[in-house]
Amino acid sequence: MTETNAVATAGAGSGGDADVLLQVENLVKYFPVSSRGLFQEKLYVHAVEGVSLSVRRGQTFGIVGETGSGKSTLARCVARLYDITSGRVIFDGQDITKLSQRRMRPLRREIQMIFQDPIGSLNPRRRVGSIIGDPFAIHGTASGAERKRRVQELMERVGLNPEHYNRFPAEFSGGQRQRIGVARALAFQPKLIICDEPVSALDVSIQAQVINLLADLQSEFGLTYIFIAHDLSVVRHVSNTVGVMYLGKLTEVAPSEELFTVPRHPYTGALLSAVPVPDPDQSDERQQIILVGDVPSPILPPSGCRFHPRCPKAAPVCVSTDPPLEPRLGDGPQHTAACHLPMAAGENLGDFHPSIDETERIIETPSILLDGDEDGGVPGATSVGGSLSQSGEGSQS
Ligand SMILES: Nc1ncnc2c1ncn2[C@@H]1O[C@H](COP(=O)(O)OP(=O)(O)O)[C@@H](O)[C@H]1O
Ligand code: SF4
Ligand SMILES: [Mg+2]
């Protein structure tokens, strides 16, 4: 997964390219929440706001961002577990944006998801052998002794003891349960695996094992991954391309090494400043950037650049105009950033102070009214808002 010579196409615009397995165009996902005010104005969580990206076959697109930035929602829209408010998802050359459940069914096995909490997605009352064997049963591809043989082969391939075929999920450790989830996903012979924080709940030593397993399987089976994490150091080593999300938007997309060496967006710069440096001699040179303020509400996101209330470089143009995601400072087409005042190589964010003061920031824009509710009620969703993450915590939660 780490070969950077095979750099994925970043951003939109590569439609029609046979190498592109997944193309997401201007994807928007709003969740309706309770109404407010005298006229019962309808409010929406702007969970994903105009995301475009493409993922090439056999490669990994990493997505990183704080909790609440819209990563899981984007993943679920791509897998069509959620209906999409607007935009398009093109998978393997087919527009799947509006496919009915029935027409999605054959594609479901081609897009598999691996979740952070494998126990939540594994039925505790079923034996592991039958859980992993489901895909063979569902598709009638193997039964009886043949199914057992293939399940045990898979168990062995993902590093589980095939003799544990009859055990229940609770009898396995966290890392082993994640391997069960991987084996089950593999049994479907998917084209795309969306890994949504697959190692976030695991100990660091186990994280590396699961990541290495995913990397080995990728080269063996030519798999394509979307790999989501809130930890930059995790996505760095697994991704060909990385996209950084903030409040529902992609703020920067770049080939992995380039993002880490020449970040253009101040948000990426701030996230990177919080990643521990392995070499203690270097750590003195790097200043950790503590972002001011909380992550604003995704119900009434800030005007212009959504990062402006917290950005050390914010200027008046950032409040009035939303910067497009495009190449900056002479970067190639694969490195795009949504920023009016991108960072030059070696620039130190700590040297900057916003040229606007607090009163000039527009933290709540008027909400957008939609025609009808796409998703029905979403009880409990009103608790989202400005409490997603505290400032001063290295800006990752
Ligand atoms: N079903 C839902 N109903 C209402 N709001 C939701 C729902 N799912 C997610 N959200 C909100 O959408 C935003 C993005 O959430 P999510 O995609 O889970 O972010 P992440 O995976 O980056 O942590 C958050 O503000 C979250 O509270
Ligand atoms: S557009 Fe302005 S506020 Fe947004 S990241 Fe760039 S400098 Fe900061
Ligand atoms: Mg998530």
Overall pLDDT score:
85
How many separate domains make up the residues? 2
Bound ligands? adenosine-5'-diphosphate, iron/sulfur cluster, magnesium ion
- Which class of secondary structure composition applies to the elements? alpha/beta
Output the number of helix runs. 12
Residue fraction in strands: 15-25%
For the sheet with most strands, the description reads: 7 strands, mixed
Q: If strands are numbered along the chain, what order do they take across the biggest sheet? A: 6-7-8-3-9-10-11
> C-alpha Rg, in Å?
22 Å
The CATH architecture designation of the largest domain is: 3-Layer(aba) Sandwich
The tally of beta strands, per DSSP, is 11
The ordered H/E elements are: EEEHEEHEHHHHEHEHEEHHHHE
What's the shape?
Answer: globular
> What is the terminal-to-terminal distance?
25 Å
Q: In CATH, what is the class of the largest domain?
A: Alpha Beta
Multimeric state: single chain
- The CATH homology group name of the largest domain: P-loop containing nucleotide triphosphate hydrolases
- Give unreliable regions as ranges: 1-15, 367-397
Protein architecture, described:
- It is a single chain.
- By secondary structure, the protein is of the alpha/beta class.
- It has two domains: 20-110 and 190-383, P-loop containing nucleotide triphosphate hydrolases (Rossmann fold); 127-182, no CATH class.
- 27% of the residues lie in helices and 19% in strands.
- It has twelve helices and eleven strands.
- The protein has helices at 71-78, 101-108, 118-121, 128-138, 144-157, 174-187, 204-221, 232-238, 256-261, 266-273, 280-283, 316-320; strands at residues 20-36, 41-56, 60-64, 86-91, 94-95, 111-114, 192-196, 224-229, 241-246, 249-255, 336-337.
- The strands form two sheets. It has a seven-stranded mixed beta sheet with strand order 6-7-8-3-9-10-11, with helices on both faces.
- A hairpin with a 2-residue loop joins strand 4 (86-91) and strand 5 (94-95).
- Helix 5 crosses helix 6.
- The chain is globular and about 70 Å long.
- The model is unreliable at 1-15 and 367-397 (pLDDT under 50).
- Bound molecules: adenosine-5'-diphosphate (ADP), iron/sulfur cluster and magnesium ion.
